[in-house]
Automatic annotation (TrEMBL), chain B:
<feature type="transmembrane region" description="Helical">
    <location>
        <begin position="101"/>
        <end position="123"/>
    </location>
</feature>
<keyword id="KW-1133">Transmembrane helix</keyword>
<keyword id="KW-1003">Cell membrane</keyword>
<feature type="domain" description="ABC transmembrane type-1">
    <location>
        <begin position="95"/>
        <end position="292"/>
    </location>
</feature>
<keyword id="KW-0813">Transport</keyword>
<keyword id="KW-0533">Nickel</keyword>
<dbReference type="InterPro" id="IPR045621">
    <property type="entry name" value="BPD_transp_1_N"/>
</dbReference>
<dbReference type="Pfam" id="PF19300">
    <property type="entry name" value="BPD_transp_1_N"/>
</dbReference>
<feature type="transmembrane region" description="Helical">
    <location>
        <begin position="229"/>
        <end position="253"/>
    </location>
</feature>
Automatic annotation (TrEMBL), chain C:
<keyword id="KW-1003">Cell membrane</keyword>
<comment type="similarity">
    <text>Belongs to the binding-protein-dependent transport system permease family.</text>
</comment>
<dbReference type="InterPro" id="IPR025966">
    <property type="entry name" value="OppC_N"/>
</dbReference>
<keyword id="KW-0812">Transmembrane</keyword>
<keyword id="KW-1133">Transmembrane helix</keyword>
<keyword id="KW-0813">Transport</keyword>
<keyword id="KW-0472">Membrane</keyword>
<dbReference type="Pfam" id="PF00528">
    <property type="entry name" value="BPD_transp_1"/>
</dbReference>
<comment type="function">
    <text>Part of the ABC transporter complex GsiABCD involved in glutathione import. Probably responsible for the translocation of the substrate across the membrane.</text>
</comment>
Length: 412, 307, 296
C-alpha cells in the first residue's frame, strides 16, 4: 500500500501520525481524541502497539482519523491542509476556496477497479432550492443534504432517485435545569408530554424521521430504546399543576437562523401554547448563539432557557459523556442542559474505563434510562439522511453521520 | 483638473482610515468568538486558550489594532482565522468573479435603462411611456432574493436555458446579473427619462427643432448627451449598491465571489477577512465615485471644483 | 441588500401659501397612475388598521391537518406549512410591514434632516464632518451594519427599524443639505438674516419649509426601499420573529416550499411587490407635481 505521493504506508507512518496528533504542542483538533495515547511503538512493518495513559474504551472508535503521508507532512508543514496526501481511492487535485474541491482516481490504489469515476468535484451550494435545481438539471450528480420539503418535487422526476438512510443525528430541545421552573422534573416531563412528536415529524421534517426514543440514534452501539413520552395534554397539564404552574409560565427558546430551526422553534411554541406556556422564539446568528451558550464564565451565568439543537454522535461515549456528564457543563463542555445525576456520572465513568462490551452495554443502558426519565431535553426526533442522485450514479452513499462515501462510485 | 484629482485622492486616506477603524472595533463588538467556532463544541477550555494564543486573539484589542494597521500599511492583509490562508490568495479568484458580475449587471442595466428612459421621454404620457415606467418601477419593487429564486425556478429548472449557479461560463452570469441589475436598470430608466425631459425644454434644443432638424436627430445628437450627466452620477452611486447586492445574489446563485466570502466570514467571525473585504468594497466605492466626478466634469465643463 | 442609495432631486420650490392644498389636489387628479396607487395605499392603511378584525382566521393558529393547501374556497390564498391561513396572515401582516418601514424611514428622515440642515446652513467644519461621515456610511456595506446592529441589540422588530433607519440617514442628510444650500441664497433668507433673525429661527421658519416637498418625495420612495431591506434581513434570518406574519418573514420562511407549494412564497412576494410599487408610483407622481422643472 502506498500514499498518493508514492511513499509506502506502513507502521512507521502510522506512528508518525499518532505522535503528531497526540502532541499537545501541535494544536490539532484531533488531539482531543488522541490525548489518551501515552506512546506508539512500531512492532513490525504492519503492526503498531499503542499504549494509553488511562483505560479508555471508546479509543477504538477514535482511531478513524485519516493517516497522512509523513513525507508530505514534512514537505508542506502547516500547509498540509491545502495539500492533503492520503492512501484513498481518490487523490487530491485542487481546492478553490469557496468554489470547489476536486479529486481524481488513484490508479495505484490497493483495491483498484472498485471506484470507476475518473474525477469527483465537490461544490458547496448553500441555498436549498438551488441545490435541488442543480440535481434536476443534471448539473449535479449527487446532492446532500436534500431538504425534506423538496423530496416531493423529486419523486417521479425522471432520471432522479431519492435515497433515505437512518442517521446518527438527534433533534431535541436542551432545557436549562439550573433555572426555574425547569429545575422541577415534573415541568420538564410535562413539556415532553405536551409535544406531539408525530406532528413534529410531519410538519417540521415533512414526514422524514423517527421519534427519538432514547438519548441517541438507534444506529449507535449500545442503544437502549426507552419508548417516547406519550403525547397527552391532560397529563402535561396535570404535571404542571402538581409542580405549581397551573397557569403556565413565560419563557424563551433559542436557535440559529436556519429556516429549519426557525420552523422547529415555532412548532414548539405552538405546542406549548396549548398547555399555557408562552414561548418567545429567539433566533440568533450561529456565532452569537454559540457565544451566548458556551462563552459564559460559569454555569450559573447561563441565560439560556431552552435551546433547539441537534447532535450527531459517532459513538456512545460521544453521545453520552459529552452531553450528560456533569464535568462537561459549559463553558467546559457541551452539557448545555446542565444535567447532573451522580448515578449517570458514575456509570459513564465506569463504561469509559471498561473494555467489556456486555458491561458497557449494561452501564450505557443505565445512563439512557435515567437521562430519559429525568428529561433534560424535549426528545423530538432522529433525522433521516436524505440525498438525491441521478439514476445513473452507482456506489455513492451518504453514511449515517453525513459522510460522503465514494469508494465504489461508478456511472451505469 | 490634475490638482483636483490629487486632492481627491488625498482625501480618500482619512476616509479609509476611519472606515478601517470603525470596522475593526465594530466587528470586535459584535458578539461571537472565532476561537470557540474554530475549536468546536467539544473543545476544552485549555484547548480554546491555546488556539486563542496561536491566533493572537488573546492580546489587548488596541495591540491587535496596531498590529493590524501595521500589516495593512506594509501591504499585508493578513491571514484568515478559519483557513489560515493569506487573504490576498483568497481574493484572487473571487475578486474577478464579483467584478464580472457587477459590470455585467451595470452593463445591461445601462443599456436597458437608457433605452427605456429615452423611449418614455420621447413618448411622454403615451402608452410606451406608461409601459416603460411601469417596467422600470417594477424593477425596484421586487426583493432581490425572491426574483433570483423565481428566475432559477423558471429559466433553469423548468426551461433549462441557464445553469442554476456557479461561474463555469458566461451563461452562468446571465440570471444573477439580471437579478442584481434590475434595481439599477429601473433607477437609470427613471433618471434618463426625467433628465431627458428637462433637456428637451432647453433653448438649444428648441433652436435645433426650429432649424428643422428631425426629432430623432435632436434627441440622439443633442439631448441625450446633455442628459447623461445625472445618469452617470446615479450609475456611480449605484455601484455601492451592486457590491452590497452581490452578497444576496451570490448566496442565491451559489457564486464564489466576494459577497459570499463576506457572509461566510461574518458567520465565522473571521475578523481579518471581514475587515479586508469591507475595506476593499469601500475603496472601490470611493474610487468609482471619484471617477464619476471626473466624468461629470468632462461631460459638463461648466462645473468648477472649488470646494 | 435591497437598499438602493438614491439621491433625490435637489429642488427648491417657491412657497405659495394660498390654496396650496387645492392646487395640489387639482394636479394630483391628473396623475392617473399615481392617483390609483395612492388609493391602493389608502386601502392598505385601512387593512393595516382593521386587519385583526377583517382576517377570516387567526393568523397564528396552526392546523396540522390542512398544511400547505393550495388556494380554495375556505382558504382564498391557501395555507402555509403549519396550516395557517395565508390570507389572514397577509392581512394582519400589512400593519407590521407598513409599521416597520414607516417608522424606520421616519427615524431616518428626522435625523437625516436635522443633520442636513445643520450641514448646509452652517457649512465649514461641521459641514465637512457630516459629509465625510456620510461618505463613510455610504462606503460601508449595509449588510454588515445590519448584522452588527441586530447582533448587538438582539433580533426583533424594533432593532430591524433601527438597522433600516441607519441606512436612510445619510441619504436624507445629503438631500436636505443640497436644498438648504440653495435656500440659503434665496432673497427672503438673506432678508431675514439681515434683519438679525436668530439662526435657529431662520433654519426652522425659512429654510426647513423649502426642503419639505423634496423630502416628501424622497420619503415616499424610501418606504419601498425599506420594506425590501427589512425583507432581506428576514431572508438572512435576522428580521421579524419567524412566527410573525410580517411579509418578509413569510417569504423567507416559505422559500423551502417554492418548488412544492409555490403559493406560500408567491403570495407574500406579490404583496410586497404591489405595495412597494404603489409607493414608488406615488413618489414619482409627487415628484412630477412638486418639482416644477419637469412640469409641462
Amino acid at each position: 500500500m502506498k500514499f498518493h505521493d508514492g511513499t509506502p504506508f506502513n507502521a512507521e507512518a502510522v506512528k508518525i501520525n499518532f505522535d503528531r496528533m497526540s502532541n499537545k504542542d501541535n494544536n490539532l483538533r484531533a488531539y482531543r481524541n488522541y490525548k489518551y495515547i501515552k506512546s506508539t511503538e512500531v512492532v513490525d512493518e504492519h503492526t503498531v502497539k499503542v499504549t494509553l495513559n488511562q483505560p479508555f474504551s471508546a479509543m477504538i472508535n477514535k482511531f478513524t482519523t485519516g493517516i497522512i503521508s509523513p513525507a508530505a507532512l514534512e514537505k508542506y508543514g502547516k500547509d498540509i491542509t491545502k495539500n492533503p496526501v492520503g492512501t484513498g481511492p481518490y487523490k487530491f487535485v485542487e481546492w478553490v476556496q469557496g468554489d470547489h474541491l476536486t479529486v481524481e482516481l488513484n490508479p495505484d490504489h490497493w483495491n483498484k477497479g472498485a471506484a470507476k469515476v475518473g474525477k469527483i468535484v465537490y461544490k458547496p451550494v448553500p441555498e436549498n432550492g438551488s441545490r435541488v435545481a442543480m440535481l434536476k438539471t443534471g448539473e449535479a450528480d449527487v446532492i446532500y443534504p436534500l431538504p425534506e420539503q423538496q423530496v416531493e418535487t423529486l419523486n417521479g422526476e425522471e432520471g432522479v432517485k431519492v435515497e433515505r438512510t437512518p442517521s446518527t443525528i438527534t433533534r431535541y430541545v436542551s432545557i436549562n435545569m439550573l433555572k426555574k421552573p425547569f429545575d422541577d422534573p415534573r415541568v420538564r416531563q410535562a413539556i415532553n408530554h405536551a409535544v406531539d412528536k408525530d406532528a413534529f415529524i410531519k410538519v417540521v421534517k415533512s414526514g422524514y424521521g423517527t421519534q427519538l426514543e432514547s438519548v441517541m440514534s438507534p444506529t449507535i452501539a449500545h442503544y437502549a430504546k426507552q419508548g417516547a413520552y406519550e403525547y397527552n395534554i391532560d397529563k402535561a397539564k396535570q404535571l404542571l399543576k402538581e409542580a405549581g404552574y397551573e397557569n403556565g409560565f413565560t419563557t424563551d427558546i433559542w436557535g440559529n437562523t436556519n429556516s429549519d430551526t426557525m420552523k422547529g422553534m415555532q412548532f414548539i411554541q405552538q405546542q406549548l401554547q396549548k398547555v399555557g406556556i408562552t414561548v418567545e422564539v429567539k433566533s440568533m446568528e450561529e456565532a452569537t448563539l454559540s457565544d451566548e451558550i458556551y462563552g459564559i464564565k460559569s454555569p450559573e451565568e447561563a441565560k439560556m432557557n431552552m435551546w433547539y439543537v441537534s447532535w450527531s454522535s459517532a459513538d456512545p461515549d460521544n453521545a453520552m459523556r459529552s452531553l450528560f456528564s456533569s464535568e462537561n457543563f459549559p463553558p467546559a463542555g457541551a452539557n448545555t442542559a446542565f444535567y447532573k445525576n451522580d448515578l449517570v456520572d458514575q456509570s459513564i465513568k465506569e463504561a469509559t474505563q471498561s473494555s467489556d462490551q456486555d458491561k458497557q452495554k449494561q452501564l450505557y443502558g443505565v445512563v439512557q434510562e435515567n437521562v430519559f426519565k429525568d428529561a433534560p431535553w424535549i426528545f423530538l426526533a432522529v433525522d433521516e439522511i436524505l440525498y438525491g442522485k441521478r439514476a445513473n450514479v452507482n456506489g455513492v452513499y451518504i453514511t449515517p453521520s453525513g459522510g460522503i462515501y465514494v469508494r465504489e462510485a461508478a456511472f451505469q | 483638473m490634475f490638482r483636483y484629482i490629487v486632492k481627491r485622492l488625498i482625501e480618500i486616506i482619512p476616509i479609509i482610515f476611519v472606515v478601517s477603524l470603525l470596522i475593526f472595533f465594530f466587528i470586535h463588538l459584535v458578539p461571537g468568538d472565532p476561537v470557540r467556532l474554530a475549536a468546536g463544541k467539544e473543545a476544552t477550555l485549555e484547548e480554546i486558550e491555546r488556539v486563542r494564543q496561536e491566533l493572537g486573539l488573546d492580546k489587548p484589542l488596541l495591540t491587535q489594532y496596531v498590529n493590524y494597521m501595521h500589516n495593512l500599511l506594509t501591504g499585508n492583509l493578513g491571514h484568515s482565522l478559519k483557513t489560515g490562508l493569506p487573504i490576498s490568495d483568497m481574493f484572487e479568484n473571487r475578486f474577478s468573479v464579483t467584478m464580472t458580475l457587477t459590470f455585467m449587471s451595470l452593463g445591461w442595466a445601462l443599456v436597458l435603462g437608457l433605452l427605456i428612459g429615452t423611449i418614455s421621454a420621447v413618448f411622454r404620457n403615451k402608452w410606451p411611456d406608461y409601459v416603460g415606467m411601469l417596467t422600470a418601477i417594477s424593477g425596484i419593487s421586487l426583493p432581490g432574493f425572491w426574483l433570483g429564486l423565481i428566475l432559477i425556478q423558471v429559466f433553469s429548472v423548468t426551461l433549462g436555458w441557464f445553469p442554476t449557479g456557479g461561474v463555469e461560463s458566461w451563461k452562468s452570469y446571465v440570471l444573477p446579473s439580471l437579478t442584481l441589475g434590475a434595481g439599477i436598470m429601473s433607477m437609470l430608466a427613471r433618471f434618463t427619462r426625467s433628465s431627458l425631459l428637462e433637456t428637451l425644454k432647453e433653448d438649444f434644443i428648441r433652436t435645433g427643432r426650429a432649424k428643422g432638424l428631425k426629432e430623432s436627430v435632436v434627441v440622439r445628437k443633442h439631448a441625450l448627451k446633455n442628459s447623461m450627466i445625472p445618469v452617470v452620477t446615479i450609475a456611480g452611486l449605484q455601484f455601492g449598491f451592486l457590491l452590497g447586492g452581490s452578497v444576496v445574489v451570490e448566496t442565491v446563485f451559489s457564486i464564489p465571489g466576494m459577497g459570499r466570502l463576506l457572509i461566510d466570514s461574518i458567520a465565522f467571525r473571521d475578523y481579518p477577512v471581514v475587515q479586508a473585504v469591507i475595506l476593499l468594497f469601500s475603496l472601490e466605492f470611493i474610487l468609482v465615485n471619484l471617477l464619476v466626478d471626473i466624468l461629470y466634469k468632462a461631460l459638463n465643463p461648466k462645473i468648477r471644483y472649488d470646494s | 441588500m435591497e437598499v438602493v442609495k438614491e439621491i433625490g432631486h435637489n429642488v427648491v420650490v417657491p412657497t405659495e401659501k394660498k390654496s396650496r392644498a387645492s392646487e395640489f389636489w387639482k394636479k394630483w387628479k391628473k396623475q392617473k397612475t399615481a392617483f390609483w396607487a395612492g388609493f391602493f395605499i389608502l386601502f392598505l392603511f385601512v387593512i393595516a388598521l382593521f386587519g385583526p378584525w377583517i382576517a377570516p382566521y387567526d393568523p397564528y393558529e396552526p392546523n396540522y391537518d390542512v398544511t400547505l393547501q393550495t388556494p380554495s374556497m375556505e382558504h382564498w390564498a391557501g395555507t402555509d406549512e403549519y396550516g395557517r391561513d395565508i390570507l389572514s396572515r397577509i392581512i394582519v401582516g400589512t400593519g407590521i410591514s407598513l409599521g416597520v418601514s414607516f417608522s424606520s424611514v421616519l427615524v431616518g428622515a428626522v435625523v437625516g434632516t436635522v443633520l442636513g440642515l445643520i450641514s448646509g446652513y452652517y457649512g465649514g467644519w461641521l459641514d465637512r464632518l457630516i459629509m465625510r461621515w456620510s461618505d463613510v456610511m455610504f462606503a460601508f456595506p449595509d449588510l454588515l451594519l445590519a448584522i452588527a446592529i441586530v447582533a448587538i441589540l438582539g433580533p426583533g422588530l424594533t432593532n430591524v427599524v433601527v438597522a433600516v433607519a441607519v441606512f436612510s440617514i445619510p441619504s436624507f442628510a445629503r438631500l436636505i443639505r443640497g436644498n438648504t444650500l440653495a435656500a440659503k441664497e434665496a432673497v427672503f433668507v438673506e432678508a431675514a438674516r439681515s434683519m438679525g433673525a436668530k439662526s435657529s429661527r431662520i433654519i426652522f421658519r425659512h429654510i426647513f419649509p423649502e426642503t419639505v416637498s423634496s423630502m416628501i418625495v424622497f420619503f415616499s420612495m424610501r418606504i419601498g426601499t425599506s420594506i425590501l431591506a427589512a425583507s432581506s434581513l428576514s431572508f438572512l434570518g435576522l428580521g421579524a420573529k419567524p412566527e410573525s406574519p410580517d411579509w418578509g418573514a413569510m417569504l423567507s420562511m416559505g422559500r423551502d416550499y417554492l418548488a412544492t407549494s409555490p403559493h406560500v412564497v408567491i403570495i407574500p412576494g406579490i404583496a410586497i411587490f404591489l405595495t412597494v410599487l404603489a409607493f414608488n408610483l406615488v413618489g414619482d407622481g409627487l415628484r412630477d407635481i412638486l418639482d416644477p422643472k419637469t412640469k409641462n
